[in-house]
Amino acid sequence: MSGERDTGLQNERTSLAWVRTSIAFAVVGGLLLRGSHLMVAPVVGYVLGAAVIGAAATALYGQHARYDVREARMDAGDGALHQASLRALAFATIAACASAATGVLLLLA
Amino acid sequence: MPDIDDGGAPRRRGLLGDPRNLSEMGDEPDVRFTLANERTMLAWLRTALALGAAGLGATEFLDSQPPLARAAVGVPLVALAVVTAAVAYRRWERDERSMRLHEPLPYDRFPQILALSIAATVLVGLILAIVHL
């Protein structure tokens, strides 16, 4: 399989999907920071917003680092499964959505 | 297919479902299918984040509306966001396992339920905006 790979731009498309996802994280983090001063406990909004933006930066860096690894694995004809990073991203997304829910409650309180 | 290792029964089910290591299960699928499944999950995660951003934005910026109206739109949206994020991983894991075990991809009603829930929330918001309590 090596040398005549037929995977097109799979790696690029997947990396771009990660980039879009980290942008979505940054939007949620930005909205949390933007609304902090309206919340009953502004410091919670600042901390959650900063954490979500940190997750955006981590996902962005992670996809950048994984691009070359995936490229090498695909060149070698290996599979592209990376369960750990997807689990981590799913956990981070649940946490970001829970942060958005916390922000909504703090804005309404 | 008796030669395929399906990893046995699930050990436990947590927030993200079956914690078993998929790489030891069944056969490695075509790399394109693995990555397509990954991108599908990422699209669902973005949907969850968009719902979270919409709920947060509605609560934050619709300050011409009373708190009850903002809550009626914002709270369901962020609740849907959390559910969608959790469902996204479980669907990815389920589909990945199906591909590795050469089984058909299962069908579920989550997309319909989510679409109807969003439609209901939008309708509530529209009615509240017209009535302007």
Q: How would you summarize this macromolecular structure in one to three sentences?
A:
The complex is a heterodimer of chains A (about 110) and B (about 130). Chain A is mainly alpha-helical and about 110 residues long. Chain A is about 80% helix and about 0% strand.
How many structural domains can be distinguished in the coordinates of chain B?
A: 1
Total strand segments of chain B: 0
Q: Please state the average pLDDT score of chain A.
A: 92
* Percentage of β-strand residues of chain B: under 5%
Assign the structural class of chain B, choosing from mainly alpha, mainly beta, alpha/beta, alpha+beta, or little secondary structure: mainly alpha
The ordered string of helix (H) and strand (E) elements of chain A is: HHH
* H/E element sequence of chain B: HHH
Radius of gyration of chain A: 18 Å
Low-confidence stretches of chain A: none
Task: Give the overall form of chain B.
Answer: elongated
- Oligomer state equals heterodimer
Structure summary, number of beta strands of chain A: 0
Euclidean distance between termini CA atoms of chain B: 62 Å
Indicate the mean pLDDT of chain B: 88
Number of helices of chain B: 3
Low-confidence stretches of chain B: none
Per DSSP, the total helix count of chain A is 3
**Number of individual domains of chain A:** 1
Describe the model.
- The complex is a heterodimer of chains A (109) and B (133).
- Chain A is mostly helical.
- Chain A has one domain (10-108).
- In chain A, 79% of the residues lie in helices and 0% in strands.
- Chain A contains three helices and no strands.
- In chain A, helix 1 (10-35) runs parallel beside helix 3 (83-108) and helix 2 packs antiparallel against helix 3 (83-108).
- Chain B is mainly alpha-helical.
- Chain B has one domain (29-131).
- Chain B is built from three helices and no strands.
- In chain B, helix 1 (31-61) runs antiparallel to helix 2 (67-100) and helix 2 (67-100) runs antiparallel to helix 3 (110-131).
- The longest helix of chain B has 34 residues, at 67-100.
- Chain B is elongated.
